[in-house]
Amino acid sequence: MNDRNESPEAPIIDHVGIAVNSLREAAARWSAILGEPPAGEETVPSEGIRAAFFGEGPGRVELLAPLTRESPIAHFLERRGPGIHHLCVRVVDLEAAVARAERSGAEVIPPRVRTGAGGARIAFLHPRSLGGVLLEMREDPAAG
After folding, report:
1. What does the mean pLDDT of the chain come to?
2. Pairwise CA distance, residues 55 & 79, whole Å
3. What is the pLDDT of residue 140?
4. How far apart, in whole angstroms, are the C-alpha atoms of residue 92 and residue 128?
5. Residue 6 pLDDT > 90, yes or no?
6. C-alpha pair distances (Å), 64 with each of 1, 52, 56, 72, 95
7. N or C: which end of the chain has fewer CB within 10 A?
């Protein structure tokens, strides 16, 4: 069932996104525990967040703080409080991965494809599609 032209043999976890109220406070706490500062920080206007990443390559931790009260992360924090927000997997071809997800009955959160951290093309699948897990798919152009 796996078309090797559409996705890697096994999913690669790009990062785990964690919603936080204060990026400065959370980054300081994570830095103290991990023994290193964030690898980078950036503002992602399309998502209404400020993000900090710990680590390089697969398996990173992404801290997400809202820029405004209207951002999706602000709404998440209001409903659930700080904690794991999403899991992100790398895909070789985002359009093919989204189409495959839609064929399987998954609900893609609009806009279908958008620009995320680092300028990467991303898409989100609604938690209703995956037993309560918000899944981000991040295109990895280097894999293609």
Report:
1. 92
2. 28
3. 80
4. 24
5. no
6. 35, 7, 17, 10, 25
7. N
Q: Which burial class, exposed, middle or buried, applies to 61 when counting CB atoms under 10 A from its CB (0-12, 13-18, 19+)?
A: middle
pLDDT in tens, 43-53: 999 899 999 99
Please report, for residues 2, 72, 92, 115, 134, the alpha-carbon distance to residue 96 in angstroms, rounded to integers and kept in the order given: 12, 26, 9, 17, 19
98 vs 113: CA distance, rounded Å: 9
Yes or no: say if 113 and 94 are a contact pair by the CB < 8 Å rule.
Answer: yes
The C-alpha atoms of residue 103 and residue 70 are separated, in whole angstroms, by 31
- Does 74 have pLDDT greater than 60? yes
Rounded to whole angstroms, the Cα distance separating 42 from 52 reads: 7
d(CA 99, CA 42): 29
Rounded alpha-carbon distances, angstroms, from residue 112 to 16, 45, 57, 66, 95: 20, 16, 25, 21, 9
DSSP assigned state of 73: H
Two structure tokens written together for 11: 């999913």
In angstroms, the CA 119 to CA 110 distance is 18
The pTM of this model reads 0.89
